[in-house]
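Me: I keep going back and forth on a fold encoding question. No explanation is needed for now; the record alone will do.

Assistant:
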Amino acid sequence: MSIVDGKIKAPAPVQGSPEVSGQLEDLLALMARLRTDCPWDKKQTNHSLIPYAIEEAYELGEAVQSEDDEDIKGELGDVLLQVVFHCQMYAEQGRFDMSDVIATLQEKLVRRHPHVFEAETLKDDAAVKERWDEIKAEEKQAREARGKPKRRLDEIKAGSALMQAQDVQKQASKLGFDWDGISGAFDKLDEEVSELKAELTNKSKADIKANLKEIEKELGDCMFALVNVARKVNLDAETATLTCVHKFKSRFGYIEEQLEAAGKQLEDSDITEMDALWEAAKQHERSQ
């Protein structure tokens, strides 16, 4: 860790054309250089990078499933980039750096594995899991002691926005915060959609651009309300959305295939032709 005048100092940018060394220190210096000289990297914030971190985690999962070493190395590198990127920005803010993150991880791994690093003996993986949960409970108590009180929804695990939304709603429902039937969920969905329409209807591009934060909130409210509908009919919102994504990709692939068969590219077509082929794709699905 580099500290100057009592504050964390961010890594110094690499000079000239960097060499590929495979060393963490050189990667940190490379990231520092990107934050100095790359317009896109310079404008990023820890919050703006959140979608990329989530995306890279999913892509790593797909790469592992593929068993392709080159893809796996690439996706592991992309996940590491997110860690390095965040550490660089927090170091620039004088809050902490990569060495702090590594030290925190080391402490956690040692603390959660007393059966490895201490005299404690655990007979099987079930016992390890039980002890792990006990240690996590102790960590939560320590967190509360630092002024971070435990709330009833703190148990919701990290995941995609849809997964968290559904889990939050399930937990709130168990605590009595829910509608009796699906009609209340539909009423809330209609209400939220109306509010979103009010933010967007008859508004200029300049008005929309100036009010993006409020529009984002209203859009989020609509999606959260729709997840409530899914929960009420015992459907998983994440699975339903993925089904739609795969369906869209399949139908769009059909459009591309039909255009190629006619000697055309997507760029040579227009919305009228593509929409007609979209309907044909739907008919093709029904015939399968």
About this structure: The radius of gyration is 25 Å. Residues 242 and 248 are 10 Å apart (CA to CA). The first helix runs from residue 24 to 37. The chain has a mean pLDDT of 90.
